[in-house]
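Instructor's aside before we start: the two examples that follow are unrelated to each other. I chose them only because their records fit on one page, so don't look for a connection. First example below.
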Amino acid sequence: MSAIAHLFDLTGRVALVTGGSSGIGRRMGQALAAAGASVVLVARRAAQLSDAVAAIKAEGGAAAGLARDLADPAEMEEVAAAAAADFGPPDILVNAAGINLREAPEDITPESWQRTLTLNLTIPFFLARACVPGMQAKGGGRIVNIASLQSERAMPNGMAYGASKGGVAQLTRAMAEAWSGAGITANAVAPGFFPTELTGPVFEDAERAAVLAAQTAIGRNGRLEDLDGITVFLASAGAAYITGQVIYVDGGFTAK
């Protein structure tokens, strides 16, 4: 293996990916496994989780599933411990679980507001903090959060979601400040419009999807495979000197 190829080889690494049963989380888990990592996928829907694990194994990868509803920050120490059962403590964490209720401001309740912030912002912090000791014991680690176009831009019916994703951007910088001295980098990927369960209402409207595609510099919406490279890169030795950054993978949507 060449020195350059070795930079992006994740053999021997252990990745914990939340939201791993579908969409962006599932794709990122597949990419990490293809690069050599042993992957633990976390999601609440057991059947879909089993399918995702089986898909990785069918491609020759190492994977395990952990069925959890990530609703209680107090349980994240237990989640981190359970995630270490199959392959050892994770040294890569991808916080991909998320929710977007798309409520108008007048329809937001204290409960729906808190539900959004808990899953999108609170859980990523407490799960990362629970994983940090294991990363430190292994000499370092990688945290990859999922930000959003709404980390930077406001969109209709996105007040709670936008607040949570704006928080993710700052959380990522704060994680980097706190833990990068121990060799643990923290970065965030901000996807453009990709076909997932969260963006289902967008892609069900062909005209709306076409309008969004036209707003990119490339001229199309995202495909899940467009996330493979950035996922492996941020998890690899190749990104050792990159931390505290929000990287937009949006086809140039935010450039226009």
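Example two begins here.
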Amino acid sequence: MAERPTAIVTGASRGIGRAVAVRLAADHRVIALARDEKRLGALSQEIAATGGECRPIVVDLAKPAQIDAVLDGVEADVLVNNAGVITRKPFTKLTPADWHEMMDVNVNALFHVTRHVLPGMIARGHGHIVNIASIAGRSAFPGGTGYAATKHAVLGFSESLMLEVREFGVKVSVVMPGSVATDMLVGDNPDKSWMLRPEDVADVVAHILASPSHALTYQVEVRASNPRKA
């Protein structure tokens, strides 16, 4: 029996990241990265109970030194850069701490994690990096100067990287969800019944990874099919 490929998922303790980890565990060995040790432990137990394998790694992705320490020598066939935070405020009320947190988690962590995993993918001649962006990566909204800026950066990073590495057998894809019913939207809208579920985004990620080796799905925008105002 062939060994399962390894998939790293960042921000895996909750929301989209957790759903992706659970979905990919059906045919991957999962390495789950996040700050919340308790939630990561629960995720690992859930995956193990269904016959899968999950290695939880507690790490603050806003701190490059921690990323360097936990990913030293780690190789993966799949990387899902999902970790993200949002602070929605008018620009005049956005603090430097708010700005730097979003940049550190949404953009800089993507750089640091990818730079650890990519060389091994290139050396082996295969691999797939999936970056979770947002519809905010091609649009804007009031209070989104920080968050939208990070997601625009993710799109620019992803497309440039895709063009650089596809000749080496490494794929880069980006998923752009609309509103997803996760903890990130607490307080924005009390009615989340119309929103995408994290599992919907996880299914899209799995579908992209299952595409034939000769085909690359670079960008997918996924929305709720029947959105409505609360």
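The CA atoms of residues 31 and 121 lie 16 Å apart.
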